[in-house]
Amino acid sequence: MMRRIGRRLLGFAGGIWLLLTLGFLMMHLVPGDPVRAALGKGASEEMVRQQREALGLEDPLIVQYVRFISDAVRGEFGTSLFTGQKVTDAISEQFGASLQLALLSFVVVILIAIPLGVVSAALTKGGRRRHFELGFTTSTVVIATVPSFILAQVLVYVFAVQLQWLPIAGNDGWESLILPVISLSVAPAAILARIVRVEVLAVLGEDFIRTARAKRMPGMWIYLREALPNAMTATLTIAGLMLAGLIAGTVLVESVFSWPGMGTSMVTSIRQKDYPMVQGMIIVYGLGVMITNVVVDIVLSAIDPRTALRRQESGK
After folding, report:
1. Maximum distance among all alpha carbons in the chain?
2. I want to staple 193 with a disulfide (CB 3.0 to 4.6 A). Which of 91, 117, 127, 155 is the partner?
3. Residues 219-233: pLDDT tens digits?
């Protein structure tokens, strides 16, 4: 197990290097001059040149790359071209709000998907209630295909503009969390509920479940004590990946609700062509996704070492 964890951490280090390299190249491959965009069309060539020299953009590419990697390892991603604020300072101010939104959405996904999947499996086991199964499958597929930012705009129009039950934007109390969390959690909850149902149905066909039924154990005990724990490995795997997706998926939803997190700032920075800010935030989002995946793999390896072995064999 320790060797598997070591290999996973080594792959994580390689992933960080690749992420930083792509983040560096983004600054140099995008069309246009970020310094010219920041200073405006009225800036003279001399002003642009001086600013590029101050930012080190006139140095050879390899020198810039080594300096960027060295700074990134220390958590430095430069300064905003528009505000002059350090990118790390801006991220530290906004990271908490984005993480709050992602984690709360993840909790809502778990609280909805697992009970819904278990109940659906219980109602449709053995091919019973075909109409319910068809309705569950169809509705979850439809819900899962709705992009979170489109759902966010619909929720804003209905509950904030028309009914005026909830605030439109900002972070002013728990009411401000309701619409963003719903927007982020609905589609993942539908997907995870389908997975939980399939996994629980598979477990219900196992011999130990038939033995439990033969012993006349209560139905609730069979589902909660026997079936659900044995179906949790695949469920936790997908849920961990969904958490990574929720971290990255906050970008557009935050911009819809003007949530004071990294997503709103990132959209604004893209519009302004504030490339150092965009660069730093993309790297932080990427790190969040990678760290989540590594933690999920390590936790699942500890819970069920066979899962990691199957993943390793399938990767070959």
Report:
1. 86
2. 117
3. 666 666 667 676 676
